Automatic annotation (TrEMBL):
It comes from Candidatus Kutchimonas denitrificans. Residues 23-108 form the PhoU domain. Belongs to the PhoU family. One of its GO terms (biological process) is intracellular phosphate ion homeostasis. This is PhoU domain-containing protein. InterPro entries: PhoU, PhoU-like_sf, PhoU_dom.
Protein backbone atom coordinates (compact mmCIF):
# COMPACT_ATOMS: atom_id res chain seq x y z
CA UNK A 1 0.00 0.00 0.00
CA UNK A 2 2.78 2.46 0.85
CA UNK A 3 4.44 2.01 -2.54
CA UNK A 4 1.12 2.85 -4.23
CA UNK A 5 0.64 5.86 -1.96
CA UNK A 6 4.08 7.17 -2.84
CA UNK A 7 3.29 6.74 -6.53
CA UNK A 8 0.22 8.92 -6.05
CA UNK A 9 2.25 11.45 -4.07
CA UNK A 10 4.63 11.83 -7.00
CA UNK A 11 1.84 12.27 -9.55
CA UNK A 12 -0.17 15.34 -10.54
CA UNK A 13 -3.19 14.10 -8.62
CA UNK A 14 -4.58 15.99 -5.59
CA UNK A 15 -2.85 13.62 -3.19
CA UNK A 16 0.49 14.90 -4.44
CA UNK A 17 -0.02 18.15 -2.52
CA UNK A 18 -0.72 16.14 0.62
CA UNK A 19 2.48 14.16 0.07
CA UNK A 20 4.50 17.36 -0.20
CA UNK A 21 3.07 18.64 3.07
CA UNK A 22 3.75 15.32 4.78
CA UNK A 23 7.36 15.36 3.60
CA UNK A 24 7.71 18.84 5.11
CA UNK A 25 6.35 17.51 8.41
CA UNK A 26 8.91 14.71 8.43
CA UNK A 27 11.77 17.08 7.66
CA UNK A 28 10.74 19.64 10.25
CA UNK A 29 10.21 17.14 13.09
CA UNK A 30 13.56 15.56 12.25
CA UNK A 31 15.18 18.98 12.60
CA UNK A 32 13.28 19.57 15.86
CA UNK A 33 14.53 16.27 17.30
CA UNK A 34 18.13 17.15 16.50
CA UNK A 35 17.81 20.70 17.85
CA UNK A 36 16.11 19.47 21.03
CA UNK A 37 18.94 16.99 21.60
CA UNK A 38 21.52 19.75 21.35
CA UNK A 39 19.56 21.85 23.82
CA UNK A 40 19.07 18.97 26.25
CA UNK A 41 22.75 18.05 26.41
CA UNK A 42 24.10 21.63 26.32
CA UNK A 43 24.67 23.53 29.57
CA UNK A 44 23.55 26.91 28.23
CA UNK A 45 20.68 27.43 25.83
CA UNK A 46 20.00 30.72 24.06
CA UNK A 47 16.35 31.89 24.24
CA UNK A 48 16.09 32.08 20.46
CA UNK A 49 16.93 28.36 20.19
CA UNK A 50 13.82 27.41 22.15
CA UNK A 51 11.81 29.93 20.13
CA UNK A 52 12.88 28.17 16.94
CA UNK A 53 11.61 24.86 18.31
CA UNK A 54 8.25 26.41 19.21
CA UNK A 55 7.90 28.05 15.79
CA UNK A 56 8.58 24.75 14.04
CA UNK A 57 6.04 23.02 16.28
CA UNK A 58 3.40 25.57 15.26
CA UNK A 59 4.24 24.97 11.59
CA UNK A 60 4.00 21.20 12.04
CA UNK A 61 0.58 21.55 13.66
CA UNK A 62 -0.59 23.77 10.80
CA UNK A 63 0.62 21.23 8.26
CA UNK A 64 -1.29 18.47 10.06
CA UNK A 65 -4.50 20.51 9.91
CA UNK A 66 -3.86 21.38 6.28
CA UNK A 67 -3.46 17.72 5.35
CA UNK A 68 -6.66 16.82 7.20
CA UNK A 69 -8.55 19.49 5.26
CA UNK A 70 -7.04 18.24 2.01
CA UNK A 71 -8.10 14.68 2.79
CA UNK A 72 -11.68 15.73 3.61
CA UNK A 73 -11.93 17.87 0.48
CA UNK A 74 -10.51 15.06 -1.65
CA UNK A 75 -12.94 12.46 -0.32
CA UNK A 76 -15.92 14.82 -0.48
CA UNK A 77 -15.52 14.80 -4.27
CA UNK A 78 -16.20 11.07 -4.30
CA UNK A 79 -12.61 9.87 -4.71
CA UNK A 80 -13.39 6.67 -2.81
CA UNK A 81 -10.72 4.48 -4.48
CA UNK A 82 -8.08 6.52 -2.64
CA UNK A 83 -9.83 6.12 0.74
CA UNK A 84 -7.31 3.52 2.08
CA UNK A 85 -4.40 5.82 1.23
CA UNK A 86 -6.13 8.75 2.90
CA UNK A 87 -6.68 6.68 6.04
CA UNK A 88 -3.01 5.72 6.02
CA UNK A 89 -1.94 9.33 5.64
CA UNK A 90 -4.24 10.51 8.45
CA UNK A 91 -2.62 8.01 10.79
CA UNK A 92 0.92 8.89 9.75
CA UNK A 93 0.49 12.65 10.17
CA UNK A 94 -0.65 12.13 13.75
CA UNK A 95 2.48 10.12 14.54
CA UNK A 96 4.73 12.77 13.03
CA UNK A 97 2.88 15.55 14.86
CA UNK A 98 3.45 13.72 18.15
CA UNK A 99 7.18 13.51 17.40
CA UNK A 100 7.19 17.30 17.23
CA UNK A 101 5.47 17.49 20.61
CA UNK A 102 8.01 15.20 22.25
CA UNK A 103 10.92 17.09 20.70
CA UNK A 104 9.48 20.30 22.16
CA UNK A 105 9.08 18.60 25.56
CA UNK A 106 12.71 17.45 25.40
CA UNK A 107 13.90 20.99 24.72
CA UNK A 108 12.06 22.24 27.80
CA UNK A 109 13.85 19.95 30.27
CA UNK A 110 16.68 22.41 30.82
CA UNK A 111 14.13 24.60 32.61
CA UNK A 112 13.83 22.06 35.42
CA UNK A 113 17.52 21.13 35.37
CA UNK A 114 19.65 24.08 34.17
CA UNK A 115 22.87 22.59 35.56
CA UNK A 116 25.16 20.32 33.54
CA UNK A 117 24.11 16.68 33.36
CA UNK A 118 26.38 14.20 35.19
CA UNK A 119 29.40 12.87 33.35
CA UNK A 120 28.80 9.19 34.03
CA UNK A 121 27.83 5.87 32.42
CA UNK A 122 24.09 6.53 32.53
CA UNK A 123 24.37 9.83 30.69
CA UNK A 124 26.85 8.25 28.27
CA UNK A 125 24.25 5.61 27.40
CA UNK A 126 21.56 8.26 27.06
CA UNK A 127 23.81 10.02 24.55
CA UNK A 128 24.09 6.75 22.63
CA UNK A 129 20.30 6.46 22.64
CA UNK A 130 20.04 10.01 21.36
CA UNK A 131 22.40 9.24 18.47
CA UNK A 132 20.49 6.05 17.65
CA UNK A 133 17.12 7.81 17.65
CA UNK A 134 18.39 10.57 15.37
CA UNK A 135 19.90 8.01 12.99
CA UNK A 136 16.74 5.91 13.09
CA UNK A 137 14.68 8.97 12.17
CA UNK A 138 16.95 9.87 9.25
CA UNK A 139 16.95 6.27 7.98
CA UNK A 140 13.17 6.02 8.31
CA UNK A 141 12.63 9.14 6.22
CA UNK A 142 14.75 7.54 3.50
CA UNK A 143 12.94 4.20 3.78
CA UNK A 144 9.57 5.93 3.61
CA UNK A 145 10.50 7.78 0.44
CA UNK A 146 11.67 4.58 -1.27
CA UNK A 147 9.31 2.06 0.46
CA UNK A 148 12.32 -0.20 1.03
CA UNK A 149 10.63 -3.03 2.91
CA UNK A 150 13.77 -5.03 3.69
CA UNK A 151 15.48 -2.02 5.21
CA UNK A 152 12.28 -1.19 7.10
CA UNK A 153 12.28 -4.66 8.69
CA UNK A 154 15.87 -4.20 9.86
CA UNK A 155 15.11 -0.74 11.26
CA UNK A 156 11.99 -2.06 12.98
CA UNK A 157 14.01 -4.66 14.88
CA UNK A 158 16.65 -2.07 15.76
CA UNK A 159 13.95 0.33 16.92
CA UNK A 160 12.34 -2.23 19.18
CA UNK A 161 15.71 -2.96 20.78
CA UNK A 162 16.19 0.78 21.23
CA UNK A 163 12.89 1.20 23.10
CA UNK A 164 13.82 -1.70 25.40
CA UNK A 165 17.14 0.02 26.13
CA UNK A 166 15.18 3.09 27.17
CA UNK A 167 13.09 1.06 29.62
CA UNK A 168 16.21 -0.50 31.13
CA UNK A 169 17.89 2.88 31.50
CA UNK A 170 14.92 4.33 33.38
CA UNK A 171 15.24 1.44 35.84
CA UNK A 172 18.91 2.27 36.35
CA UNK A 173 18.06 5.93 36.93
CA UNK A 174 15.43 4.97 39.52
CA UNK A 175 18.04 2.92 41.42
CA UNK A 176 20.68 5.67 41.34
CA UNK A 177 21.55 8.21 44.00
CA UNK A 178 20.85 11.25 41.82
CA UNK A 179 19.13 14.28 43.28
CA UNK A 180 15.42 14.53 42.57
CA UNK A 181 15.98 17.19 39.90
CA UNK A 182 18.68 15.25 38.07
CA UNK A 183 16.76 11.97 38.21
CA UNK A 184 13.65 13.70 36.87
CA UNK A 185 15.51 15.37 34.01
CA UNK A 186 17.22 12.12 33.01
CA UNK A 187 14.13 9.91 33.32
CA UNK A 188 12.03 12.33 31.28
CA UNK A 189 14.79 12.66 28.70
CA UNK A 190 14.84 8.88 28.25
CA UNK A 191 11.06 8.80 28.13
CA UNK A 192 10.83 11.47 25.45
CA UNK A 193 13.46 9.74 23.32
CA UNK A 194 11.56 6.47 23.71
CA UNK A 195 8.32 8.09 22.55
CA UNK A 196 10.04 9.68 19.55
CA UNK A 197 11.50 6.28 18.65
CA UNK A 198 8.08 4.64 19.08
CA UNK A 199 6.37 7.07 16.72
CA UNK A 200 9.18 6.62 14.19
CA UNK A 201 8.45 2.88 14.45
CA UNK A 202 4.81 3.58 13.67
CA UNK A 203 5.87 5.30 10.44
CA UNK A 204 8.00 2.27 9.64
CA UNK A 205 5.02 0.00 10.21
CA UNK A 206 3.34 1.57 7.17
CA UNK A 207 6.05 -0.08 5.06
CA UNK A 208 5.89 -3.57 6.58
CA UNK A 209 2.29 -4.00 7.76
CA UNK A 210 -1.16 -3.82 6.09
CA UNK A 211 -3.38 -0.83 6.89
CA UNK A 212 -5.50 -2.58 9.52
CA UNK A 213 -2.34 -3.48 11.48
CA UNK A 214 -0.68 -0.10 11.27
CA UNK A 215 1.35 0.68 14.43
CA UNK A 216 1.66 -3.05 15.21
CA UNK A 217 4.37 -5.59 14.35
CA UNK A 218 3.07 -9.07 13.68
CA UNK A 219 6.29 -11.05 13.24
CA UNK A 220 4.40 -14.19 12.17
CA UNK A 221 2.56 -12.30 9.44
CA UNK A 222 5.75 -10.64 8.23
CA UNK A 223 7.53 -14.00 8.09
CA UNK A 224 4.64 -15.61 6.23
CA UNK A 225 4.59 -12.75 3.73
CA UNK A 226 8.32 -13.11 3.12
CA UNK A 227 7.95 -16.84 2.49
CA UNK A 228 5.03 -16.25 0.18
Amino acid sequence: MLRELLTIFRSDKPLAAMGKNFSQMLEMTNQMTIQAGVMYFTDTVAPNERTQIYKKDVQVNKLERTIRKQVIAHLSLGNWPSLPYCLLLMSLVKDVERIGDYAKNLSELREIHPAALPDDEIVAELKEIRASVEQQFADTAQVFSTSDRERALVLTQEGRVLTHRCDALVTRIAASDYSAGTATALALGVRFYKRIAAHVLNVLSSVVMPLHKLDYYDEDEIAADEVG
